[in-house]
Amino acid sequence: MRILRAGDHKRMPWKNGKGETVEIAVFPPDASINDFDWRVSMATVAEDGPFSIFPGIDRTLAILDGNGMVLDVAGSSPVLLTTASDPLAFPADVPVAARLEDGAITDLNVMTRRKGLSHTLIRIDVDGSKTVPLPPSACLLLCHRGALSFRRNGETGALAAGDALLIEEEAATVLKIDGEARCYLASITTG
């Protein structure tokens, strides 16, 4: 397990140059925007426009802050995503247009290379104590709001808003969480 502090996340321009992304974690560790196997990042979207195209990549997006964004993914009906919506999975190699509902939003993106990997992204609200089952895959828990402490296999730690916990172990287990927080759990699976 490794804690990734909010202040250490890497900032870089979007692939299409129209904004900035905050990279929370990427694999392989020094991969670029063009050659990652998987990537978890946040971005602020301040204007309507197209998403960057990522050939061979699957993507899941969740709205962290703001009043929502309508995504028009080629081949599907437009979808309004808000902070209350479930994360939306879609291919990152088809045209996608975004239209802001009312002002800028911040989103969370999980992307995996389709050949050999897949992923899931779920929202977890913690108010007190919670036991979170972890699948047998690499996992990243982002503490978006609030703060929490965690325990797993004798290891303990704490996350503040913006911090993440990266677990790169392929053994199913559980994570015990205490606190008040809104979190997102990304699981990356081989195969």
UniProtKB/TrEMBL annotation:
InterPro entries: RmlC-like_jellyroll (IPR014710), RmlC_Cupin_sf (IPR011051), Uncharacterised_HutD/Ves (IPR010282). Gene3D superfamilies: Jelly Rolls (2.60.120.10). It comes from the Bacteria. This is HutD family protein.
